[in-house]
Amino acid sequence: MSENEKNSEVMLPTGSELVLSSSPHLSSPDSVRRIMYKVLLALVPAAIAGVWFFGFYALVVMVVTMLFCVGAEALWCKLAGKPVMGTIADGSAAVTGLLLAMNLPPGVPLWVCLIGAFLAIWLGKQIFGGIGNNPFNPALVARVGLLIALPAIMTTWPVPRSFDSADPAAKITHATDTPVDSITGATPLGEVGTTKKILDKSEAAYANFQAVDNDAMLWKYFLGEKGGCIGETSVLALLIGGILLIALKLINWRVPVCYIGTVAIITGLVHFFYPGVSPSPLFHILTGGLMIGAFFMATDMVTSPITSTGCVVFAVGCGVITSVIRLWGNYPEGVSFSILFMNALVPLIDRWCSQRPFGYVRKRG
Amino acid sequence: MSKKDILTFDGGIHPVSDGKALSCNAPITAAPLLDKYRVLLSENVGKLPKPVVKAGDLVKKYQLIAEADGFVSANLHSPTSGKVTGIVDVPGPMGTLIPAIEIEADGQDEPCEPMPAIDWHKADVKELLKRTADAGLVGMGGAAFPTHVKLSPPPDKTIDTLILNGAECEPYLTADHRLMLEQPERVLEGAAISAKILNVKNVYIGVEANKIDAIEALGRRAAEFGIKVATLKVQYPQGSEKQLIMAITGRKVPTGGLPMDAGCVVQNVGTAAAMTDAVCRGIPLVERVTTITGEVVKNPGNWLLKIGTPVIKAIEFAGGVTAEPGKLILGGPMMGFAQKSFEVPVAKNTSGILLLPVELSMNYGSTGCIRCGRCVEGCPMNLIPCLLGNAVEAERFDLAAQNHVMDCLECGSCAYVCPAHRPLVQHMRRAKAEIRKRKK
Amino acid sequence: MNTVVLIAVVLMAVLGLALGVVIGWFAKLFRVETDSRVELVTELLPGANCGGCGKAGCSDFAKSVVAGENPPSKCPVSSSEQISAIAMALGIDAGESFQQRAVVCCGGDMEQTKRLLNYNGVLDCVSASLVAGGPKGCSYGCLGMGTCAHHCPFGAIEMINNLAVVHRELCVGCGNCVAACPRGVIKLVPADADVHIYCNSPAKGAAKKQVCNVPCIGCRKCAKFAPDKFTVNGFLAAVNYQAEAFPTAEDVSAVGCPTGALLTVEEHLKIEQNEPEWSAGKK
User: Which of A21, A23, A26 to mutate to test the interface with C (most CBs of C within 10 A)?
Assistant: First the structure.
């Protein structure tokens, strides 16, 4: 052994740096912070779409809401004596902020964002003990809180920029790049909500939603030209982000698939039997907050079930409640409420869907 | 090879860095003789063997130095010739001091009269079992369970399958890989002998697909011993007994049960090779192939080490280190045990000596659970590790027991994938310790 | 308008009456027979629910006292006056009281005992002891992560410089710390014993000295000085708690333990109180 002959050159360990820890001694390079940053990345396409359709002010809302949320978290940590930098650095407050901003109308005043940030971080998250302990999705807590407290502001929808440049409304909105209170449109779902329902299968029933539910309009909805919250506009952008999330294994694909599937089936059945009551399922999928809800809100790790079976139950529940609210409820939109409602059931779902260990044998007697 | 032929189980993980490239091309090298060996008495699960030598005795290589005490216990033999200097307390692999027989080598390495070789084709089962016990064979993969006990299942269990564990799913370790590649006939013959003892016809050897050369080497000779080579998916913990049985036979070992409850016996390939030596050459188990590896080891490789070799000497064989290691691990990085001392001797179940660099050693800056469910996906036993961890943190051991913490393999998949880096395995161990304490 | 009010009032009255009847009926149906004496004894007990008596809590113990299974003196927390009050209330014998105190048989704090390694894991003694026996050089001494202090219902254990010390005036001898300690370094001793051997390691003297400045090295100096008060088993001396008289502070100075493992309780408390280095992250 040539190495052993040169014994004096062999460097032997002294043990001065030894660390004692439990196995496993390797860990995956992923961390909570990385997960949060990846979610932010997946939200970028939808954010860009929001800015494109609603102008620079949408970007201001998103950035400011994120800053408010991070600030609210820092303030809480300061008051509660928790490490401030460590908590902010995990990026969860920024994700909550961006999600919240995407669930606000594009023309929302900034003070509403501030209230929303405190609702989300303090009421939605920190009073339960911070990240990982909150039963409800913080961004949705804030959105629903604002929706109930400030219904007028929260349902004022500026008209988005149109692909059709002859549209005068779009021009005006974009000429100023500030919220235009005077020119407001309605969301497609809002229009459906105010349309008088026809309970038979007459010609009129089929034509009831013709104005909002036709091929040309559906294409617009898909690309993003529709009234609504900043993040809800472009189904295409949300799909890109959602597929990114699934590809990065950040969300369980069962949640969006089952959620959207359930909505499609229920609205499809109603549409088939009562075409005057509900537009086509495709309309329901492409409008409102279903896409952002199914891909970004319902899939929130903390507030969704742990097991895959549980995720299916959870998503189907969300789909049922969303459909019920949309078809028969007072609100035109039910995504936020349905997700919050199912969030409350997560501990129960986890209990029902707890899995049996490998090789489990039921004890007799 | 089509994808269908590659067998696997549900759950499990795919570690990013498997570190096997460091040592998988290094042929097995016999270690030079040392001047002192310390053979640990507690090599095996079960009772400590009783020393049959005392200070001042002269011993030859292969001579019996400690005798099995009871059925679940195994003989110990001298790794070299020399003088017994006494029974000393040395740090054991679990961190406690345990007695060891210290032998000062005379440099001759002179063997004693070997046990007579047995023609296993003709020999009867009792004779073979007795030889297994005499040669001090133990499971060389993990727990060092005495092989003769494993090969004599109670009469009410029907065993129809023998599985040789060549999965070596632990990252970094390559000892079994080199053994199967370089000495396939030793492994296969040992498997055939074990199959004869158990009187089973179905004999499989399961190897992970990343060891294609070993699969080919075994495949060339397997048919003549009536053994089937099963290619397994590269997935941790493929080498865990229960998962291996599931992958190869599709059977599930019932919870709390042993492989024999699924009609199987699982044996490590190293043990099979030692079986061949014991039966065909009359040589007891005194040396084993061990991987000495890690990013800071100068020449990572696979060495044939005598039992009782202090780890520090083994590292010297491998050229020492290039930097001060942050962790010394006996076994693989997923299930191996961190050590406090470099004086720990190599035992019959030391499959690897792993030195991790300092920057890989501090891995827990644990934060709260975010319920991402990755541990649930990764758990090969279908448990919900994050909830078990929460239960332990709240000291609710009753809740942990209800949620089957006792079925945990401690394979480390959950803690590996946890993005919050929670020390889940340590929590599981604590829960098990507390539950066992309460049962007493 | 009057009719509306009337209807409401009548409806509420009827509803209230009906519900009241139902509640009353249920209360009768599911009445739990309680022994007033159990309640009395429970009130006289300290209510710490420490479990030192071996029962699940104070009211469980009260039941067993009333049933005659245990004498009142089995409660380690109550003073003799409280015990006699219980005995008087029940008209039974108080039983012989045997007061015990916990003592941590280790003097190895941060400075005195070598800690071999950086420990990276759960800061809990049980968890740490499962990782290669814990990061302390001595595998018998106090690990110093405070699991016993955490389990003490009376706050009698303080972690000083990563060594558990018992404040005798707070300790009642319930034994929760003894059960919590994975190393068995805490022992229950008679309450009036003042001097103890603060070492728990049966290892050889030389081996102990390698890792600790204050071990008992089994020199037998104490046993030679007072064979009736001290016994030496292998390399570890012990105070003979069965003896007539326990060693005193004078005995300690007279023996002159060469390593300082023989201490009075007060001396053990006064082991240098430096700011612990690594207990900052303690849970």
Answer: A21
Series of mean pLDDT values for 10-residue runs along chain C (283 residues): 88 96 92 82 86 85 87 83 86 80 88 76 89 84 91 90 88 89 91 89 85 88 88 88 85 86 82 45 35
Does A32 contact B242 at a Cβ distance shorter than 8 Å?
no
Q: How many interface pairs between B and C have CB atoms less than 8 angstroms apart?
A: 52
Among residues B207, B181, B191, the alpha carbon closest in space to that of B8 is found at: B207
Reply yes or no on whether the pLDDT at B124 is more than 60. yes
Please tell me which residue of chain B has the smallest CA distance to A32.
B419
CATH code of the domain covering residue C242: 3.30.70.20
Of B89, B362, B430, nearest to C127 by CB-CB distance is B430
Task: Return all residues near C134 (Cβ < 8 A) that are at least 6 apart.
Answer: B95, C119, C125, C128, C143, C183
C212 assigned ligand-binding residue: no
Task: Count structural domains, chain C.
Answer: 2
Interface of A with B in 102-141 (CB under 8 A): 129-133
Same domain, C65 and C157: no
Residue A75 located in a structural domain? yes
Query: pLDDT by residue (tens digit) across B352-396?
Result: 999 999 888 776 578 889 999 999 999 999 999 999 999 999 999
Q: Is B112 annotated as a binding residue?
A: no
Euclidean distance between CA atoms C174 and C180, whole angstroms = 12
| Whether C81 and C172 share a structural domain | no
CA distances A306 to A91, A255, B377, B385, B386, Å, are: 22, 12, 9, 11, 9
B384-436 pLDDT, tens per residue?
A: 999 999 999 999 999 999 999 999 999 999 999 999 999 999 999 999 999 99
**Would you call C124 an interface residue with chain B, using a CB distance cutoff of 8 Å?**
yes
B372 is in an annotated binding site: yes
Between positions 13 and 42 of A, the ones with CB within 8 A of C are 15, 17-22
Q: Among C113, C127, C150, C208, pick the best mutation site for testing chain B contact (most B Cβ within 10 A).
A: C127
- Whether the ω angle into residue A24 lies within 30 degrees of 0, i.e. cis, is yes
What's the structural domain count of chain A?
Answer: 2
Residue B379 is assigned to a ligand binding site: yes
The answer as to whether B47 is a domain residue is: no
pLDDT for A107 beyond 60: yes
Q: How many contacts does A have with C, using Cβ atoms within 8 A? A: 26
Same domain? C259 vs C155: yes
The amino acid occupying position B240 is S
B364, C121: Cβ pair inside 8 Å? Answer: yes
User: Domain containing C83 — which CATH number?
Assistant: 1.10.15.40
Virtual torsion, Cα A110, A111, A112, A117, nearest 10 deg: 90
Q: Rounded to two decimals, what is the model's pTM?
A: 0.87
A3, A23, A28: residue with CB nearest B335: A23
Which chain A residues have a beta carbon less than 8 Å from that of C125? Answer: none
Element (H, E) at B217: helix B212-222
Residue A291 — pLDDT band, cuts 50, 70, 90? Answer: very high
Q: Is C148 contained in some domain? A: yes
User: For an interface test with B, which of A18, A88, A350, A361 has the most B Cβ atoms less than 10 Å from its Cβ?
Assistant: A18
Q: Which domain holds residue C166?
A: 100-269
List chain B residues with CB under 8 Å of A358.
Answer: 10-11, 242, 246, 252, 255, 380-382, 407
pLDDT one-digit tens code per residue, B77-118: 999 999 999 998 888 888 778 889 999 999 888 888 888 888
